């Protein structure tokens, strides 16, 4: 019999709808039920493409005996962290503070007032490696609740007080300047992996936001070392197993330093951020490899993540069925030499094995290999490679596909809109700009709907019940601003302004600090507030970037002041932890450069407009259009006459404008950084 999760829209919660565990979604009613029965709450947090979440579900939540014990002694609450990042953030902070590490599945035991008192992540069904079994944990917590309630209350109170004491020093002593940015660059250089690219050791995550900072820093200062780190890292990832050499798109991270074996789940946010990074790398260097990766990643997103309503699904699972019908990580993507020969024949099979690094012993599990490109620059027959790739991709299409988490997350769609709009504009792919516009339309129609506040998720064109958090407002505004620059449609600028006004009213605290949830959001044990960029830009830095761009478009002092206030945190964290505030540093580069305002009085898509979009000046904003209608949509175009009847570009910053130009070459020089 299905439990209460059957009524939800989250694919992750629906995966647990038939568990024998009597799950509740996060709701006041669940805590009322715990009070009524006088039992503690078990909070289990995960997401649909999380491998160990599936393992724990299969071992424990699908087990009748475990479920019966759990149902008798607890109220069980299941949360999709992608739907409720606020709930996830608050309890993850507590888990990390208590245990020194965190991760998913996250398992937290709460009092009836939602105060945490015992934590963990994955618990096995039997005791192993010094870790108790899940059943032992349940029995221990239940005994403590029954026999030592005062102790439980004391622990919970102490944890909540500790969390409350962690209020953020937001660095409200001004904006980051040359000194902080130089120190951040030095910090990244120290952590740079000279041999394999990227930062730090294994596991290695794609550092998309740090690369955006490095590219902007190079554009502004000409620092060759910054460009070298960005370009070499991008090349190493593009040739590694973290990149899908047949279908395009990136996996979540590499388990090794060398980018060979990925954790195979593919997330929308990684691919959106990386698509944009490679497009920007091409814009900087003209690298053919960067162009190919940007376009293949864009095509992957459209082909495999686009939903029927025009939005983009959250993720593809790491696991799928292998030849024996078992669910195995990476089964869809890996190959043995024998499998290559079966598809391609002896000769092409041997060629493909050499080209993609597929060996008899394998680079992954059970003799299988993840496809990667050899790092030796041997000349190869491009036609033969293309033919082999196409045949292998067609054969792979016959394999059982990984599951897809098809909920649409507002923030991640905002990132995808920015990436597809710019990639489409750079490479003359109007279809990609159309896909970006359709996703933006869905956000307006379904996620804003009639309530005029952003909803975090939707599925099958139906809005979810959870409010948007700061990253939703920041990333969606960023996507809309990119769309305005590319299409010349001022409506997108207007929508971005509408969202950013809500940021000013609902998410801003004293001294420029920002909160992840709105002033009128559900009250949790602590109001979440995280300025660090991890897998995606923090809401804090995403909002700062969008506020800065919007101020450059409109001249709005309030938005500029808010952006500068928010960047205080980058002044504080940039020199100390540059890897974890990459987007914040990229926004700081835009601030240091102006950012420049480019007004093109001339046709959208014309040579001057295209040249403006390809300008490398950090965070430059572009408005293009002709006639009084365009000036009404973009304040930047007001009083910008044509010179000699020709399309004309105006470049300004800090209230000072260069002489107008009708020459694309001259404009390119002005925007070169």
UniProtKB/TrEMBL annotation:
What CDD domains would the database entry show? SSP411
Task: Indicate the segments forming the Spermatogenesis-associated protein 20-like TRX domain, all copies.
Answer: 3-163
Which Pfam families does the record match to this protein?
Thioredox_DsbH
User: In terms of domain of life, where is this protein from?
Assistant: Bacteria
Tell me which SUPFAM superfamilies the record gives: Six-hairpin glycosidases, Thioredoxin-like
Q: Which PANTHER family match?
A: SPERMATOGENESIS-ASSOCIATED PROTEIN 20
Please state what the protein is called: Spermatogenesis-associated protein 20-like TRX domain-containing protein
């Amino acid at each position: 019999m299905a439990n209460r999760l059957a009524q939800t829209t989250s694919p992750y919660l629906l995966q647990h709808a038939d568990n024998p565990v009597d799950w509740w979604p996060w709701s006041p009613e669940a805590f009322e039920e715990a009070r009524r029965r006088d039992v503690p709450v078990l909070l289990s947090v995960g997401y649909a493409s999380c491998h160990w979440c599936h393992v724990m579900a299969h071992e424990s939540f699908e087990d009748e005996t475990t479920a019966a014990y759990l149902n008798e002694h607890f109220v069980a609450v299941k949360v999709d962290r992608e739907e409720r990042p606020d709930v996830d953030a608050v309890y993850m902070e507590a888990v990390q503070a208590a245990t020194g590490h965190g991760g998913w599945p996250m398992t937290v035991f709460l009092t009836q007032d939602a105060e945490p008192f015992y934590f963990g992540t994955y618990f096995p069904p039997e005791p192993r490696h010094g870790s108790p079994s899940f059943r032992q944990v349940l029995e221990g917590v239940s005994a403590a609740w029954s026999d030592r309630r005062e102790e439980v209350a004391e622990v919970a109170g102490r944890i909540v007080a500790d969390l409350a004491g962690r209020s953020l020093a937001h660095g409200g002593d001004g904006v980051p300047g040359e000194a902080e940015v130089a120190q951040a660059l030095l910090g990244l250089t120290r952590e740079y992996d000279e041999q394999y690219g990227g930062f730090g050791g294994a596991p290695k995550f794609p550092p998309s936001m740090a690369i955006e900072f490095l590219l902007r820093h190079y554009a502004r200062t000409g620092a060759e070392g910054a460009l070298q780190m960005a370009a070499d890292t991008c090349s190493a990832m593009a040739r590694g197993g973290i990149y899908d050499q047949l279908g395009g798109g990136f996996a979540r991270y590499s388990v090794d330093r060398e980018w060979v074996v990925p954790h195979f789940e593919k997330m929308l946010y990684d691919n959106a951020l990386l698509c944009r990074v490679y497009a920007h790398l091409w814009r900087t260097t003209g690298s053919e490899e960067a162009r190919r990766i940007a376009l293949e990643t864009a095509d992957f997103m459209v082909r495999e993540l686009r939903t029927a309503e025009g939005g983009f699904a959250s993720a593809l699972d790491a696991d799928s069925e292998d030849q024996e019908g078992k669910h195995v990580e990476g089964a869809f993507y890996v190959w043995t030499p024998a499998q290559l020969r079966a598809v391609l024949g002896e000769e092409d099979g041997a060629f493909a094995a050499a080209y993609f690094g597929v060996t008899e012993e394998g680079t992954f599990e059970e003799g299988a290999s993840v496809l990667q490109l050899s790092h030796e620059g041997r000349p190869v027959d491009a036609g033969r490679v293309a033919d082999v790739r196409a045949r292998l991709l067609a054969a792979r299409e016959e394999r059982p596909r990984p599951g897809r988490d098809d909920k649409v997350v507002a923030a991640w769609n905002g990132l995808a809109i920015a990436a597809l709009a710019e990639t489409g504009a750079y490479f003359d792919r109007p279809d990609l700009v159309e896909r970006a516009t359709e996703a933006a339309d869905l956000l307006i129609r379904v996620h804003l709907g009639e309530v005029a506040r952003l909803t975090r998720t939707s599925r099958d064109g139906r809005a979810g019940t959870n409010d948007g958090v700061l990253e939703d407002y920041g990333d969606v505004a960023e996507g809309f601003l990119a769309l305005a620059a590319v299409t010349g449609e001022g409506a997108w600028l207007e929508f971005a302004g509408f969202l950013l006004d809500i940021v000013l009213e609902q998410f801003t605290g004293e001294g420029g600090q920002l909160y992840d949830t709105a002033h009128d959001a559900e009250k949790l044990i602590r109001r979440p507030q995280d300025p660090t960029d991890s897998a995606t830009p923090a809401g804090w830095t995403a909002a700062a970037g969008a506020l800065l761009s919007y101020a450059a478009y409109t001249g709005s002092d309030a938005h500029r002041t808010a952006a500068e206030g928010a960047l205080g945190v980058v002044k504080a964290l940039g020199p100390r932890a540059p890897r974890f505030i990459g987007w914040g540093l990229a926004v700081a580069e835009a601030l240091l450069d102006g950012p420049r305002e480019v007004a093109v009085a001339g046709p959208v898509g014309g040579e001057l407009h295209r040249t403006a979009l390809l300008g490398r000046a950090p965070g430059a904003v572009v408005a293009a259009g002709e006639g009084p209608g365009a000036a009404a949509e973009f304040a930047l175009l007001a009083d910008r006459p044509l010179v000699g009847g020709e399309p004309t570009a105006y470049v300004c910053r800090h209230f000072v404008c260069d002489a107008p130009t009708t020459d694309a070459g001259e404009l390119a020089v002005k925007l070169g950084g």
